[in-house]
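Below is how a single chain appears once it has passed through the pipeline. First comes the sequence as given, then the structure the pipeline wrote out for it. We keep one example in the README because the format questions we get most often are answered faster by looking than by reading.
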Amino acid sequence: MNCFEKARRVVVKVGTSTLTYDTGLINIRHLERLVKTLSDLKNSGRDVILVSSGAIGVGVGKLGLKERPQDTPSKQAAASVGQCELMYLYDKLFSEYNHTISQVLITRDAIDNPDRKQHIMNTFERLMDYGAIPIVNENDTVSVEEIEFGDNDSLSAIVAAIAQADALVVMTDVDGLYDADPRTCENARLIRQVDQVDDALRAKASGAGTRRGTGGMITKLNAAEFAMERGIDMAIVNGKDPYILYRLFEGQQVGTHFKRKG
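Resulting structure:
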């Protein structure tokens, strides 16, 4: 039995590239499989929190824009439209498995303020008590800071710490952390386990994400370091098939495991 098999409270982060096609429109098959798998994990007795990117990307598709906007007001407008679409779909799909979801939109200043942070912690605990599945995103519609600097990789690690999770899983469009960029290097080797995030490891990571998202491997390494230092195991796995979560939580070795400290 590995640490993920034993995890009772888990945070799963899914990125824009997993949720959408290149057109920006929802990848319905992926979304349905993700919801089914998370519902099954919930049925197994685990607490599940989903950190979902994609509001801006989905908004771009919903509005029929040709590409992701670059100016902040347009990004905020796309996020406003996309967030409605995402939550509608999540509510519809999770309801099919008799699970109740909640929406939690967070801004960085709320995390930095001790009193507001405590309120967020209390809310998560009560939602867990009620058996709900919180769906978390940065509040892109009103927060300029997150759109310009942030990515939900960092948010997912913060949420995992606030919710006192045992494990964090970041789903992306590659199999895990490689010793070179697998998109350009045929001999790139998957790193199965990381015990420490250091400058040498960061040098192996490319900083750019996909056209539809904002993050890259560097943001995932920062999230991993944050989680590891707080006693949380983290895995980076390929979100191409959300059923991979079954394998991870059944004890199989998939992706890259960042081993918690202590």
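Confidence is low (pLDDT under 50) at residues 207-214.

See the next section for the split statistics.
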